[in-house]
Amino acid sequence: MSYMTRTLQHYYLFCRKRTGNKLHNITISSLDGNRAILRGTSPQALSFSLPSDVGQVRLWERSGRGRGAFQTTRRPVSISARCQRQGLRVRPQIGVYFGLVRRAMIECWMPGRPIGRPYTGNSYSMKTIGLLGGLSWESSAEYYRIINQEVQRRLGGVHSAECLLWSFDFDEIKVLQAAGDWAAATARMIEAARRLERGGAGCLVICSNTMHKMAAEVQAAIDIPLLHIADPTAAAIKADGLQTIALLGTRYTMEADFYAGRLRDPFGLTPLVPDEPGRTTVHKIIYDELVRGIIREESRAAYVQVIDDLAASGAQGVILGCTEIGLLIQPEHHPLPQYDTTRLHALAALDWAMG
What we know:
The protein has helices at about 5-20, 80-85, 135-155, 170-180, 180-200, 215-220, 230-240, 250-255, 255-265, 275-290, 295-310, 340-355, and strands at about 25-30, 35-40, 45-50, 55-60, 70, 75-80, 95, 105-110, 130-135, 165, 205, 245-250, 270, 315-320, 340. The protein is α/β, with parallel strands linked by helices.
């Protein structure tokens, strides 16, 4: 008997007690080691709890008493990630309605596993990574390459990562950024994040430093964890014993506090950004060249000069704080330690998936 089957049996008995034995025609069956189904009818709404390690629930139902196909009437909802994110060890409440003449079933599966994929129990089983990309596609391709190359390095054979990718038309996002319409950009990000969650992603990775500007709003709108790009970057810097760090990125990243502020608190780092001419140079090369896949030696020389200026101001290392900068600047181009946010973020996502 699978864990999920035992779980539903336990809560079936609980529900019968709550409803005065008014649950009818109940059957519990196991689809595989990861999922189980409870089927039945009830004349009233139910509210019951599930253990926090049961990840998601989908309600299916059909009208009448015939043999018609079950149809999904509610999208999957996570019931554990929000509580885990808040550090609470509680059993979240889920309300499920069985109509008077409707037949219904509840389908449960563990978090981060796509519907229909059995959990193998192997030590290398991976949870599904949700990639929010197209910001630009040049760096999204790097995320995909880094993640899958590292999976193959760790596991050998022809292993690759379980990923879902939502790719924006970056021109639309670029227009919203330039207009300062961050509310509309946030709405687009939330919509895409929810699509990935519904598709079975177990975590969310925003493949962009700049679009972490709305990371808090996106996280509040979903029930799977958002892996923030600044966290593995700051952790790597702290592990190297550095304190004062140069930050290169788009103008939005360098001039706002959403990124530098996270480096300061909780990590205690001191970020330095270029002066106004330097910020203009860095930003312009990103949008005019790097997001288009254009690599120019003169642009590399300009970046090296900006890094030199920051090193002269006390920077002990440099954050490549735009996911395309790593296409232009490599360790051999400057002696200052470099922290490529694309690579650090991608590897952190894989660590989560294989953890």
